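Good morning C.,

I know you're traveling, so I'll keep this short. The sequence:
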Amino acid sequence: MKNDHIEYKDIIKKLLEKTREGRVEWTADVRLNSFRCDILGAPEPTSNALADRLNRNKEEKTFSFTVMTSGTDDSRPVLRMWDKANNEIFRAVSNDLPTSPEEEEVSQMIDEIYELARRQVLKIEQKLVLASTLLDRV
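The C-alpha cells, ready to paste straight into the viewer:
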C-alpha cells in the first residue's frame, strides 16, 4: 500500500467501527469474494447554505464501499470507496509487509473489514452452529 492511503485512515476506521457495531449492512457483490455496502445520507436541516445545497442533492451524499481480495490467493484485501456515479474515490490495499506503523494499522483495519463483511454476508456463525448440530446427530 502506498503511504498516501494513510490519508484515508479516519474513514476506514469509522467504517470498521460501524461494521463491528453491526450498523453497516454488507451484501455480496458481483465478483467472487467481494462484498459491498451502501451509505445513504439523509438530509439534515442546517443553517449552512453549502450544507443545504448538499442536502438537496442526495446523490452527492450516497457512497458505497467494496472490499474484496486482490487475487486468486486471497491474501491482500482491497477496500474501495465509490460515489453514486461509480467514480472511485479511493482504493486502499492491505499490505502484508507494511513499511510504517501507520501503514500496518490501515492494513489491519482493511483485513478486519474484509473478514467481518465476509462473515456477515456468508452467515458464517449460523452455518457453523448448524454444521455442529448436524455433526452431533451423526
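Safe travels,
E.
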